[in-house]
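Pasting as-is:
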Amino acid sequence: MTRRPDGVPRSRRSLRTRLLVAFVVPLVAVLGLVGVVSVTALRAQLVSQVDTRLDAAIGRSESYSSQPGYDPPHDTGDGDGNGSPGGPGFLGARGQGEGTLGATVVDGICTTSGVLGSRGQTLQLSSAQQGVLVDLPTDAEPVTRDLGGDLGDYRLIASPARDGEVLVTGLPLNSTADAVRRLVTVELIVGLLALVAAALAAVLVIRRALRPLDRVAATATRVSELPLASGEVRLVERVLPGDTDPGTEVGQVGTALNRMLDHVEGSLAARQESETQVRQFVADASHELRTPLASIRGYAELVRRQHAAVPADVGHAMRRVESEALRMSELVEELLLLARLDAGRELAQEEVDLTALVVDTVSDAHVAGPGHTWQLDLPDAPVLAPGDPGRLHQVLANLLANVRSHTPDGTTATTRLRVQGGWAVLQVIDGGPGIPAALRPHVFERFARGDASRSRSAGSTGLGLAIVHAVVSAHGGQVEVASEPGRTVFTIRLPHATEAAVAAAD
């Protein structure tokens, strides 16, 4: 048993288990109650019959004892040593049956006692058994006592007689106990069989009743596995009409799920339409800005290259105009590239020598950042992978520019290339201050920037790593980052990579 956040207990058992328990437990209780009542009623009935026979035996005893000379003991006549010549005389009355017990008690002392045997002999009682008879109440009401030994339970009545004597008469309850035991055995066997049969029937009924709920859950599971995060989404999954009957609880769940899916589909369609409009606007705006930005850069460069002397402040202003126009042109180009990738535009596909691409890009980084230490870790054979060489070059150039912009001079950056299980694994490792933990989950988002420890120092637009992620994803690859103070690793994986065969030297 667990607890929800609001403190309410929550069962871990399934609905099927709870329904089965809710069915079986009351059934067990009912079967147990019926068994107890039936056993109690049967025993009471059998004991009542014994009491009736006991009354008859008492009548015979009293009738016999009223005759003159009833005191002589009943003769056993078998000579086997089990009889007692001191047994009460009324045991010899006509009609007394096997197992009938008789005793006389005078002043708290059992003077005679015995039990009729199977051949009419009188079996003597032990001292302990006689002690039980002495302690009987003399209210002429039948009581049950355990005499122990071979006798077991007896139904006994102690009734006062003449001269202060108490006559004790009893009948065995062995047959009653046997009948009760047989009934209990039958009830246990039949009850267990009935319980098993009822439990199996309940399992089948519950499984059949909850089958529509399984189908509703399967529909919800299929919807949960759909890629709903981005792109155009169509929710074709719906609960079948047979499972949307509002007259049933499961049908109400199915109807509610269908309404929710309709609402989600409409919301996703509206979101996709809005995103498409934004992307189209960005693409159109970026495309339209390319021409005026190129004109601004051209005019600024024309003024700067004129041989006629211009005032120093005018020259500085024109250089700033040209520099910012260049930076804005880069931003526009990056936005246009992201808009095209978002629109799903296909990239060029050809075999790219990643080894040569890494060497060229690291050489360019060495020229652009002479204050850093640039190292290569390449395999012996060239690594080949399908892709767009220009975009892959841009990916690596952006990663190296990221190192150059966000790490201090003297930092060592290593570019490593390997082939692992058909994937080209390209890593850029630097020993800079690392990426703040709060920024790591958002480092590939657009316009994401770090704090002062990794702030831009060379005109960064905040789109470099977003372009890396978009281009790698368009190639069917993966990109991830792991960072800690003193070590930052960007890892790119590109599929379908191979190592070219190297010709042996002559």
